[in-house]
Amino acid sequence: MLSVETRHAIHPAQAKTMDSAALRANFLAQDLFRDGEIRLIYTHYDRFVMGGAVPVGGQLSLAKVAETGTETFLERREMGIVNIGETGTVRCDGEAHEMGRGDVLYLGMGSGEITFEGHGRFYITSAPAHAAFPSRLITLADCKEVKLGDPANSNQRTIKQFIHPQVMESCQLILGYTSLEEGSVWNTIPSHIHDRRMEAYLYWGMEEEARVLHLMGEPQETRHLFVANEQGAISPPWSIHSGAGIGKYTFIWAMAGDNIDYTDMDFIQPKDII
Ligand SMILES: O=C(O)C(=O)C[C@H](O)C(=O)CO
Ligand SMILES: [Zn+2]
């Protein structure tokens, strides 16, 4: 079963009038992972798509999505898939990519029908593309690691970059994930915005009771989402995206927009956030 939900782009002036329910309806990605289903959210932020596929030992196929108006979903798009479950296989264009937990698969523009198999829980991201780069499985051994933060600021963390110019070529999709060291709770502190790129987070690797307080909004008009395991946050270009966790967590970040420069961020110090 395939379902697609559309999320419209929200103006920051509208976002600041929203109560918790409206913020969650517009910016929280819930229920992406349901047994036997592919569930996608088609956003109007750079036409970025996020979603989940859970084949539970069977087979699920993603061929065509009405929202793109194309013969196949990836006719004019590229895709990044992260397996956040047990070992599973993604088949595309006659190739079988076996993915362990934490592996990332890039599928280039023009790739055909995609089939998800096995016991993987596949997080799907996709953005429009202008050129066909080769599909590639990027394992943990292939990613680039960046260490940031320190225990004194409770923000010691490792950033693993997979779909990233220093690892491989893509059109506009950049993707990786960040894990906190034990005792550190804060991600993306100091905060930043990048008006050139939208971003989406998927929080995972959390205990059922754990939560992340995800901060969003313009730096002088912040709001929050309380986020559980396997829930995502859509971050508009005008919004900060930082979080503090109760319990351990990892989050997948993915971006699309005008450039693929991960370091192109406008930092906002805690003293400047309201
Ligand atoms: O902990 C961090 O810092 C991050 O992981 C930052 C994200 O990767 C990000 O926001 C990139 O723009
Ligand atoms: Zn960012």
UniProtKB/TrEMBL annotation:
Query: One Pfam family of this protein, by short name?
Result: KduI
Family membership, please give it.
Answer: Belongs to the KduI family.
Listed NCBIfam families: PRK00924.1
Molecular function as annotated in GO: 4-deoxy-L-threo-5-hexosulose-uronate ketol-isomerase activity
UniProt cofactor note: Binds 1 zinc ion per subunit.
SUPFAM superfamilies to which the protein is assigned, alphabetical: RmlC-like cupins
Cite the annotated pathway.
Glycan metabolism; pectin degradation; 2-dehydro-3-deoxy-D-gluconate from pectin: step 4/5
Query: What's this protein's name?
Result: 4-deoxy-L-threo-5-hexosulose-uronate ketol-isomerase
Domain of life, per lineage = Bacteria
Required cofactors, per record?
Zn(2+)
InterPro entries linked: KduI, KduI/IolB_isomerase, KduI_N, RmlC-like_jellyroll, RmlC_Cupin_sf
Sorted keywords for this record are: Isomerase, Metal-binding, Zinc
Lineage at the top is: Bacteria, Pseudomonadati, Pseudomonadota, Alphaproteobacteria, Rhodobacterales
Residues annotated as binding Zn(2+) are 192, 194, 199, 241
Q: Which PANTHER family would you find in this protein's record?
A: 4-DEOXY-L-THREO-5-HEXOSULOSE-URONATE KETOL-ISOMERASE
What role does it play?
Catalyzes the isomerization of 5-dehydro-4-deoxy-D-glucuronate to 3-deoxy-D-glycero-2,5-hexodiulosonate.
> Per the record, what are the reactions this protein catalyses?
5-dehydro-4-deoxy-D-glucuronate = 3-deoxy-D-glycero-2,5-hexodiulosonate
Does Metal-binding count among this protein's keywords?
A: yes
Under Enzyme Commission nomenclature, its number is 5.3.1.17
